[in-house]
């Protein structure tokens, strides 16, 4: 019947199907979502995983059972769902487990206008109400099943008017037109672009978004397949970029783009086949947005390179540093009216996209910038890559708090250093900084370090890891 306490995370719902997340749980979540939000209508979309369709249908049964109209957008990316929520003014749910392995699935929930839901802003209430509905359902833990022991699993959650309906609506063309309307690509030179969809939803959205652009597209793994037969749809792992890097070199392409399973993240490879830091992309898009909105605010999380706030300030913008996580980024963007925000994880957020993130919109900005210049991508981005970064390094620890305390004690009081606790522990020194954050779901500490050069960064990284792993 699902394991609601386990699958409801800080920002979404995610678990193994069917052991932790099944159709019965999805139906209860659908009913609870409508009740908690008081929603008369909502929109749903799903990725290509085999379990996504049945879970979405079960969720819709729960929602319509509470009298809501469900607009079913069918197959789509997470940012297509955000487009639907924003353009239709409806709360929405995306069925996806993003970059997680095939046996997982989940839900990303938002209020109308693509406003995110987190544990602090409604997700906990949805979880608790869904648990109540499951407990009182036929065959649930609060009631003995009678007759066929499997019959209860086929019955819906109790209550509600049952008068809602499902309306199917194709939103892909509208989504593509909206994205192209946000970036001027009319004057760009012809570009050779390789896209690795990883058998995820970019294989569904990229052809429509790129249609009519002066782009020679080389598709890799555009066939939708939730079993991910070629490689995991997680571009943050270097091994998953190998095929893209090779194709860029083989084709003499100008740029390579890699998307995760639900296509909300976009990773970039330059013409040399070299991976490009998301901090450089954040800085590039920030400069473009500041040209349109002089003096505007730009959001960056505390893991992005220090080059980002420097470049934003140099171009007359106001950099604002936030915690890691899309709900924090979106909330701070709404609070400050920021025009753009970027994360080290290749999530990019836009005010003119309802403060939501879109990997394809970031990709269009990159293509526009590159297409306006007669220089290679590596040259164009050289000024945005100022420092050496470690990337994110995970360490398993027995006691997260005690380990962080040991690291703090080792650095506090050193001449020229400072600390802050915005998100985990950040320590800054002359020409370097590092951040150490606990995972919310695993016994891990995540280290990110940056230095003026590779030698300094490595020294800082290794010293911190020696303490963490001792």
TrEMBL record:
<protein>
    <submittedName>
        <fullName>Phosphomannomutase</fullName>
        <ecNumber>5.4.2.8</ecNumber>
    </submittedName>
</protein>
<feature type="region of interest" description="Disordered">
    <location>
        <begin position="136"/>
        <end position="162"/>
    </location>
</feature>
<keyword id="KW-0597">Phosphoprotein</keyword>
<comment type="similarity">
    <text>Belongs to the phosphohexose mutase family.</text>
</comment>
<feature type="domain" description="Alpha-D-phosphohexomutase alpha/beta/alpha">
    <location>
        <begin position="281"/>
        <end position="387"/>
    </location>
</feature>
<feature type="domain" description="Alpha-D-phosphohexomutase C-terminal">
    <location>
        <begin position="392"/>
        <end position="465"/>
    </location>
</feature>
<keyword id="KW-0413">Isomerase</keyword>
<keyword id="KW-0479">Metal-binding</keyword>
<feature type="domain" description="Alpha-D-phosphohexomutase alpha/beta/alpha">
    <location>
        <begin position="174"/>
        <end position="273"/>
    </location>
</feature>
<dbReference type="InterPro" id="IPR005846">
    <property type="entry name" value="A-D-PHexomutase_a/b/a-III"/>
</dbReference>
<dbReference type="InterPro" id="IPR005841">
    <property type="entry name" value="Alpha-D-phosphohexomutase_SF"/>
</dbReference>
<dbReference type="Pfam" id="PF02880">
    <property type="entry name" value="PGM_PMM_III"/>
</dbReference>
<dbReference type="InterPro" id="IPR005845">
    <property type="entry name" value="A-D-PHexomutase_a/b/a-II"/>
</dbReference>
<dbReference type="Pfam" id="PF00408">
    <property type="entry name" value="PGM_PMM_IV"/>
</dbReference>
<dbReference type="GO" id="GO:0005975">
    <property type="term" value="P:carbohydrate metabolic process"/>
</dbReference>
<dbReference type="Pfam" id="PF02879">
    <property type="entry name" value="PGM_PMM_II"/>
</dbReference>
<feature type="domain" description="Alpha-D-phosphohexomutase alpha/beta/alpha">
    <location>
        <begin position="6"/>
        <end position="121"/>
    </location>
</feature>
<dbReference type="GO" id="GO:0004615">
    <property type="term" value="F:phosphomannomutase activity"/>
</dbReference>
<keyword id="KW-0460">Magnesium</keyword>
<dbReference type="Pfam" id="PF02878">
    <property type="entry name" value="PGM_PMM_I"/>
</dbReference>
<dbReference type="InterPro" id="IPR036900">
    <property type="entry name" value="A-D-PHexomutase_C_sf"/>
</dbReference>
<dbReference type="InterPro" id="IPR005843">
    <property type="entry name" value="A-D-PHexomutase_C"/>
</dbReference>
<dbReference type="InterPro" id="IPR005844">
    <property type="entry name" value="A-D-PHexomutase_a/b/a-I"/>
</dbReference>
<dbReference type="GO" id="GO:0046872">
    <property type="term" value="F:metal ion binding"/>
</dbReference>
<dbReference type="InterPro" id="IPR016055">
    <property type="entry name" value="A-D-PHexomutase_a/b/a-I/II/III"/>
</dbReference>
């Amino acid at each position: 019947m699902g394991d609601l306490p386990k699958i409801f995370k800080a920002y979404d719902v995610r678990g193994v199907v069917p052991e932790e997340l099944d159709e019965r749980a999805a139906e209860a979540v659908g009913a609870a979502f409508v009740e908690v939000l008081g929603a008369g209508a909502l929109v749903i979309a799903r990725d290509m995983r085999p379990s996504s369709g049945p879970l979405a249908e079960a969720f819709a049964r729960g929602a319509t059972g509470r009298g809501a109209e469900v607009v079913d957008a069918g197959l789509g990316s997470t940012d297509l769902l955000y487009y639907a929520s924003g353009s239709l003014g409806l709360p929405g749910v995306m069925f996806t487990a993003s970059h997680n392995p095939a046996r997982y699935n989940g839900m990303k929930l938002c209020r109308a206008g693509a406003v995110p839901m987190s544990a602090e802003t409604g997700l906990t209430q949805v979880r608790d109400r869904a648990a109540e509905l499951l407990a009182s359902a036929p065959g649930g833990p609060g009631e003995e099943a009678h007759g066929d022991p499997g019959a209860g699993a086929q019955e819906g959650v109790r209550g509600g008017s049952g008068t809602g309906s499902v309306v199917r609506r194709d939103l892909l063309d509208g989504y593509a037109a909206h994205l192209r309307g946000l970036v001027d690509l009319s004057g760009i030179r012809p570009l050779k672009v390789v896209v690795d969809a990883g058998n995820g939803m970019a294989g569904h959205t990229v052809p429509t978004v790129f249609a009519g652009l002066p782009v020679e597209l080389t598709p890799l793994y555009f066939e939708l397949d939730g079993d991910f037969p070629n490689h995991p749809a997680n571009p943050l792992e270097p091994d998953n970029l190998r095929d893209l890097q090779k194709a860029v070199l083989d084709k003499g392409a100008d740029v390579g783009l890699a998307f995760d399973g639900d296509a909300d993240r976009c990773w970039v490879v330059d013409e040399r086949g070299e991976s490009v830091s998301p901090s450089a992309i954040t800085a590039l898009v920030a400069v473009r947005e500041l040209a349109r909105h002089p003096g505007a605010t730009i959001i960056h999380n505390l893991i992005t390179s220090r080059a980002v706030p420097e470049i934003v300030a140099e171009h007359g913008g106001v950099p604002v540093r936030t915690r890691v996580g899309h709900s924090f980024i979106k909330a701070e963007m709404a609070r400050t009216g920021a025009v753009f925000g970027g994360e080290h994880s290749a999530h990019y957020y836009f005010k003119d996209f309802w403060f939501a993130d879109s990997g394809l919109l970031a990709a269009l900005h990159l293509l526009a910038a590159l297409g306006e210049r007669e220089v290679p991508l590596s040259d164009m981005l050289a000024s945005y890559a100022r420092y050496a970064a470690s990337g994110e390094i995970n360490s398993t620890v027995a006691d997260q708090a005690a380990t962080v305390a040991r690291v703090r004690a080792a650095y506090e009081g050193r001449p020229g250093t400072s600390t802050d606790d915005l998100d985990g522990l950040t320590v800054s020194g002359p020409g370097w900084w590092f951040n150490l954050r606990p995972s919310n779901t695993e016994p891990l500490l995540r280290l990110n370090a940056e230095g003026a050069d590779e030698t300094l960064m490595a020294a800082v990284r290794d010293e911190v890891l020696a303490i963490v792993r001792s």
